[in-house]
Every structure is written in structure tokens, then in C-alpha cells.
Amino acid sequence: MKCHLLSRRMSGTRAAALGACLVAGLLVGSPASATPASGFTAVQQWKGVYPPVSLNTQSDRRSDKDDKWDVKLMTKDMSDIYVTRNAIAVGGQSGWHSHPGPSLITVTSGTLTVYEASDPTCTPIIYTAGQSFTDIGCGDVHLIRNEGSVNAVTVVVQIVPAGQPRRVDEPAPGNCPVITCP
To answer: Least crowded by CB within 10 Å, which of 36, 66, 109, 145?
Structure first.
């Protein structure tokens, strides 16, 4: 239902139409609210803007069969690359969120517990100082929580389409327990 207000003064018919629009809006409902972060601070350290990239260090497998390290990275358009430092207090959490591109996360101190909305059982995954993990991005909804006894810190490298936000707040998934603030 479209609602148009044609003038500041409303007749009884227009007032009734406005009321019907408001009621219809309430009945349709609103999307679930995002879950706020608590005890979580993200500080952007650096940002670079890159043109399309095509990197491939792969060697010729026909002659080099010792399975050496290779890397491939390709972007089709401009990208923003961020280096971010996250500090998570004991009991703090990131709120449910996603990213429009991949993230490489290194835990530099403390212990973190990651919950993935795509996991039907929402099984926690624990990472300690010195460990790294990746977030594929592209709508992967997750929450990071410090369930340890000391503050935790991560350093994150993120690659996102130019001009897109680094983080997209998301509603809590129905398959995971409610994560409460400390």
C-alpha cells in the first residue's frame, strides 16, 4: 500500500487514509533489529584503495612438483583494504554482523570465541593468542565474544568492494543462544 500526503490540511478521508497506512505499516512489521556490540572497540589503523588486482604466484606444476606455497588473489573492481585493531573486554562481544568481503584475523592477545550463524548447532570455536582464522565475508553472519579472563585483541586485514562499509550489523540468528552483555 502506497501512502501519499498531498497537502498539510487533511480532510476526514485523508486522515482516515493516513491512519490506515500507519496501521498497515505496523501490521507488516519491521525487520529484526541488529544486535549491538558491547565491550568491543574497533579502530581502523590503515586504509588503502586498490585498483583491480590479479595476483597469482602459482608455479608451473608440470615441472615443479614439490607442492610449494602459492597464492591467488583477484578483484574485479576497486577495493578498500583495511587494517583494523579490535579490543574486546572480558565478557565483551561484537554483536552479530557480516562483512561484504573476506577478513584475515589474528588474535594477538587473549582468547576469543566465535559463533557462526550458518552452523545449525551454533557450536563455539575458540581461538587463542597467536592463532589466526579467516572470515569469507559475503554475508557470513557471526559474533565474536571474549569468554576468557583477560582482555583480547585482534588485528584484522579486510578486503571489501570500494565504498562499501567494513561491517554490516545483522539480527541474531534463531539457531544460536542469546548472547547477553556482561
So the answer is: 66
Output the nine-digit C-alpha cell for 137.
Answer: 565475508
**Residue 24 belongs to some domain of the structure:** no
Query: Residue 23: inside a domain, yes or no?
Result: no
CA distance 124 to 167: 21
Query: Are the CB atoms for 133 and 114 separated by under 8 Å?
Result: yes
Q: Is residue 111 part of a domain?
A: yes
pLDDT tens digit sequence for 113-152: 999 999 999 999 999 999 999 999 988 999 999 999 999 9
- Cell 561491517: give the residue: 167
d(CA 169, CA 164): 13
* Closest to 155 in 3D by CA, of 103, 115, 89, 114: 103
Q: How far apart are alpha carbons 155 and 30 in whole angstroms?
A: 35
26 CB-side CA count, 13 A: 5
Does 180 map to a domain? no
Query: Which three cell numbers mark 48?
Result: 588503502
Note down the domain range covering 138: 38-169
